[in-house]
Each structure stands twice: as C-alpha cells, then as structure tokens.
Amino acid sequence: MGFDVEKEMAAIKAQLEERPGAKKKLSMIVFSGDLDKHIASMIIATGAAAMGMEVVMFYTFWGTAALRDPKKKAGGKNLIEKMFGLMLPRGRNRTKLSKMHMAGAGTAMIRAIMKKKNVASLDEMFEIAGQLGVNIVICEMSMDLMGFKREEMIDYPKLSVGGVATFLAEAGESSIQLFI
Amino acid sequence: MADYETKKTLDYKGLKCPMPIVKISQELPKVGIGDIVEVLTTDPGSLSDFPAWAKTTGNQVVETRQEPGLIKIYVKRLK
Question: Which of A14, A62, A172, B51 has the highest CB neighbour number within 10 Å of its CB?
C-alpha cells in the first residue's frame, strides 16, 4: 500500500530528537572570575558529564583568566594588554573568593578546608573534565579585550576558541543552559 | 533484604560530590549488563545522587543500606 509504519515512526522519532532543547546536553557560560563560582561550574560540568550529558563550557569575560597557564608566556602585547595581564589572575589557582577573601586569608582557608575534607581541587576537576570529554570554548572577544593570547592558555584536550554564535548554536539544542 | 551476587565492590569512602557519581559513571561500564556492583560511600548526598544518576543514565539502584558511618548502594547496570 506504500505506507510503511516503521519508516513513519522512525521519521517522527528523528523529528522529536531534533527539536530544540531535546538533547541531553548542558551549555554553560562561565562569566565570573571568582574561585567559588569556578568550583561550582566545574562540579556541575563534571557531574553532568557523569550523567551521560554532552557538556560545553563557554569561558567569557572575567572567567577567561582561569584558563591562563601560569607556566606559559605570550609576547607581542601592548601596554594596556600587559597591564591587564598583570592585574588579572594567572590561572585558576590565583582566583579569589567572591566573599570573605580577606586579603587572601579567606581564600587560603577555603583551599585548606577543601583539601582537608577531600573535596576535589580545581586542578583535579579540570583533569576529570578533560577525561570525561567536557568541551571548553574560550570567548574570542574576551581574549582580545584582555589581551590574552591562545598560546598562554592551558593545555586541555577539548579546548577551542569561539564567539556568541557558537554558544547560541550549542545552547539552542541543550536541555540545560546556565550562566555563572 | 535480599542479598545480591555483586560483581565488584567500589570503595568511595571519603569522596565528596561530584566524585562518587563521576567514579560510578566510569566504573559501571566495566561490568556486564545486568550485573550489580556494591558502592561504599560516606557521602550523604549519594543517597539522592545515585538514584538521580541512575534514572538519567538508564541504570538502576536496587537498594541502599545505611549503616553507622557507612552507606552501601547497590547499582545494577542496565545499559
């Protein structure tokens, strides 16, 4: 009769799976440069990956400084870019608490407590995120604004550079979107 | 309380969120489909996290047992 039920069903199923927000996927913007918010974003990202979700983290504005590798240097910067480079944290382990930083005492204390209570450190969480296939995208414009160069960023398995359209395309098909 | 034939015991004592579910997501695929593993944890959050993880990933928490200072979770691989 020319009507294949199974074929029709497969077509409907494919349509359903392609509708916006249907994917088991998390898209997150990491805007903040605070240590506490970096911890939160990494816990959510690794947790989501463990739940079998595809995860994309977009680092923008103050967040990008956490992706700097303290061991790497980039040349060819103008005066303002050099100033930004000096004033912003050189990597995730130089970030500060959003509250109770207390000239460094509070931040040092929270790091010590995390260690004592066996909470994974940011270093460990980036390592695990890499193992679980979490994607990290660095905002191109933020890097340009702050004068960060690609060659001074961390070594990470799934690291790329992108813009707002990259984020929106990923977020559009995600079931969860977060801004941190 | 039934006793299960567990394929493996995974010791996650002392680990904090999100490590227990990160670890189980890496370890469960190593046993066969239908097999049950025993998880030992001291993280009270695991009591709600394991069922939530199992529901999302299509696996099953067969039972949780609470003993003083220790939680035992039995997870069956379905996928």
Answer: A62
Going along chain A from its start, the domains and CATH numbers come out as: 21-179 (3.40.1260.10)
Q: At residue A89, what is the residue type? A: P
Query: Is A51–B17 a contact, with Cβ atoms under 8 angstroms apart?
Result: no
Question: Please, which pLDDT band fits residue A2 given cuts at 50, 70 and 90?
Answer: low
Name the closest residue on chain A to residue B14, using Cα atoms: A118
Question: Model confidence at A22, in pLDDT bands (50, 70, 90)?
Answer: low
As to burial, measured by CB atoms within 10 angstroms (0-12 exposed, 13-18 middle, 19+ buried), residue A89 is middle
Domains of chain B: 6-76 (3.30.110.40)
Interchain contact, B22 vs A47, CB within 8 Å: yes
Q: Is-cis flag, bond preceding B18, omega within 30?
A: yes
Catalytic status, residue B17: yes
Catalytic residue among B11, B17, B52, B65: B17
Cβ neighbours, 10 Å, residue B53 = 24
Percentage of chain A beyond pLDDT 90 is 77
The shortest C-alpha distance from B31 to chain A (Å) reads 17
Does any CB of chain B come closer than 8 Å to the CB of residue A118? yes
Is the ipTM of this structure higher than 0.85?
A: no
The alpha carbon torsion through A97, A155, A129, A17 (nearest 10 deg) reads 120
Rounded to a whole number, what is the distance in Å from the CA of A100 to chain B's nearest CA? 23
Nearest by CB: B18 against A47, A52, A53? A47
